[in-house]
Design a protein that fits this description.
By secondary structure, this protein is of the alpha+beta class. The chain has one domain: Methylpurine-DNA glycosylase (MPG) (3-methyladenine DNA Glycosylase, Chain A, Roll). Strands 1, 2, 3, 4, 5, 6, 7, 8, 9 and 10 form a 10-stranded antiparallel beta sheet that branches. A hairpin with a 3-residue loop joins strand 4 and strand 5. The radius of gyration is 15 Å and the shape is globular. The chain binds a DNA duplex through strand 4, strand 5 and helix 3. It is an enzyme of class 3 (hydrolase). Its EC number is 3.2.2.-. It comes from Candidatus Taylorbacteria bacterium RIFCSPHIGHO2_02_FULL_45_35. This is Putative 3-methyladenine DNA glycosylase.
DNA sequence: TAAGTGATCTCT
DNA sequence: GAGATCACTTAA
């Protein structure tokens, strides 16, 4: 393994959700499947932050599905939707504060459901820590992301959240 | 542009 | 229990 690459610790995720989202751009998502290791650069993320965020699953309170969002920073929140797609999120912030970052795209994979398919991410990872022992983790390999390369836009597919929350610029895109 | 697909949430 | 919804993708 490259000397410069380092695995992000749980602490990385225990910060303001928007900062974590932005800082995840340029980091590598790494997946171990048996003997094979897949990795790719994270290029698109969205923040879902707090109780009031009407676009977030958490805004109606804790349910069986969104329970991991209320957990500690640095665990996965994986859920199934549209009858066929898994979504990958990483939980941020303090325990009992519901927040997470949705990984929407990688350099060679666009679309949140396609990346979970390619990386074989499913509910088994739900609630597991973002670390090597889970077989899925995030590494900093020294990619420098300048402010000019970051585009900030409203989130996708959340029009139902009403004018205020649907327009929040909580989506970050890394354009290299 | 719309169908597919099924878990989950929100009422009865 | 029933009905609606859904942080999407693909095919046309």
């Amino acid at each position: 393994m490259d000397k410069k690459s380092k695995i992000l610790p749980a602490d990385f995720f225990n910060r303001d959700t928007l900062k974590v989202a932005r800082d995840l751009l340029g980091k590598f998502l790494v997946r171990k499947i048996g003997r094979r290791v897949l990795s790719d650069v994270i290029t698109e993320v969205e923040a879902y932050d707090g109780f009031d965020d009407r676009a977030s699953h958490s805004h109606r309170g804790m349910t069986k599905r969104n329970e991991p969002m209320f957990g500690e920073a640095g665990i996965f929140y994986v859920y199934f939707t549209y009858g066929m797609h898994f979504m990958l999120n990483i939980v941020t912030g303090e325990k009992d504060y519901p927040a997470a970052v949705l990984i929407r795209g990688l350099q060679h994979v666009s679309g949140p459901a396609r990346l979970t398919k390619k990386f074989r991410i499913d509910k088994k990872l739900n609630g597991l820590p973002v670390s090597k022992k889970s077989g899925l983790w995030v590494e900093d390999r020294g990619v420098v992301v300048s402010k000019k390369q970051i585009k900030q836009t409203p989130r996708i597919g959340v029009l139902y959240a009403g004018p205020v929350w649907a327009k929040k610029p909580y989506r970050f895109v890394f354009e290299s």
